[in-house]
Amino acid sequence: MISKGCEQCAKGGKMVLFVYGYCDQRDCFYCPLGENRKNVTDVYANERKVESDADVIEEAKRMSALGTSITGGEPQEAMAKTTRYLELLKDEFGEDHHTHLYTGITGGRENMRRLSKAGLDEIRFHPPLEMWGNMHGTEWEEILHIAREEGLTPAFEIPGIRAEPEFLEFLDEGAAEFCNINEFEMSDGNYRRMQEEGFELQEGHMSAVEGSKDDAILEEMASHEKVYFCTSVFKDAAQHRNRLKRMARNIRREFDEVTDDGTLVYGKAFADPERFEALGVPEEFYTVKSNHVEVAWWLLEEMVEDGDLDEGEIVEQYPTVDGTVVERTPVA
After folding, report:
1. Residues 6 or more apart whose Cβ sits within 8 Å of residue 76
2. Average pLDDT, the chain
3. Is pLDDT of 204 > 70?
4. How confident is the model at residue 137, as a pLDDT?
């Protein structure tokens, strides 16, 4: 089963809103947060550091976001920001802008009510690993019913550490709507502690953990109609790439080429802008910057080949707010 939030994510239409990196109640050895996200009070909308509410809206528009996924740490102070962003997004984009929250704490009725009132659609709980198999009769069972009573869609989202039938029981009992299992991954932020716990990378893979797609998880859990297994390859090849493509199509200039990977490609030259005017290059094919000129890459190649320009380079970069350059290819 794929939820509405996951459908939008697969299309690259989900903005990721990171609200704080502190977890007051948890210290999971597999937490993937890196140095710039862990134990910080910063907020990020995708790769954009949020300095004002306007940044959140601008980033959502940059990618034509269909919805927003909210994640981060769990301090109570983050609740005020989370509810404000929920209200902001609903006011700007309407009820069709689907929102879901990923959380590692139960929160209680008052928080469920506040989140629902602010416009949250779906809440995905990640119980601590030590509770797996012993959640019935605890606050983790209670909060599923409370969330539903307050108008939210309750669900589980867990890492693929091991097969745990209790999650399926909650689905069959109607307490949880679905369960997402993410392929267990290593990151810069957790690999040392993961190795201390005995986990290793899959051979030939950059992040997936050995055993995260073993038969027990796939056979016992992923075969259930309300369980969806999200692989690390899918996250990179579909979700991330499609999000980049959405951004690239929105911000591309007349002369930018959008690649299959969602990057932008253009030429960069260091000749005087007057040179382009003298050569009769149409204005839509180039842009003058402070110390260089950006131009259609194919036109740059042609101009260098014909001797109209001495040199330049072809630039490939992400369409994200930081504009990270992927590759530079000299042309001479």
Report:
1. 24
2. 90
3. no
4. 97
CB 60 within 8 A of CB 215: no
> CB under 8 Å, gap of 24 or more: what pairs does 190-196 form?
190/29, 190/30, 190/31, 190/32, 190/33, 193/29, 193/30, 194/29, 194/30, 196/29
**pLDDT given at position 212:** 59
Give the tens place of pLDDT for each residue, 255-268: 999 999 999 999 99
Instruction: Assess contact for 295 and 311: CB atoms under 8 A.
Output: no
The DSSP secondary structure of 10-77, one letter per residue, reads HTT-EEEEEE----SS---TT----TTTTT---EEETTEEPSSHHHHHHHHHHTT-SEEEEEE---TH
From 277, 317, 316, select the one nearest 293 (Cα to Cα). 277
Q: For residue 127, which of 114, 119, 136 has the smallest C-alpha distance?
A: 136
What is the rounded distance in angstroms from the CA atom of residue 33 to the CA atom of residue 50?
18
DSSP state of 209: B
Angstrom distances, CA of residue 184 to CA of 39, 160, 161, 240? 22, 5, 6, 17
> What digits encode the pLDDT tens for the residues 81-123?
999 999 999 999 999 999 999 998 898 999 999 999 999 999 9
Both tokens of 113, joined, read: 């009510």
Please tell me the chain's helix, strand, coil percentages from 3-state DSSP, rounded to the nearest 5: 35, 20, 40
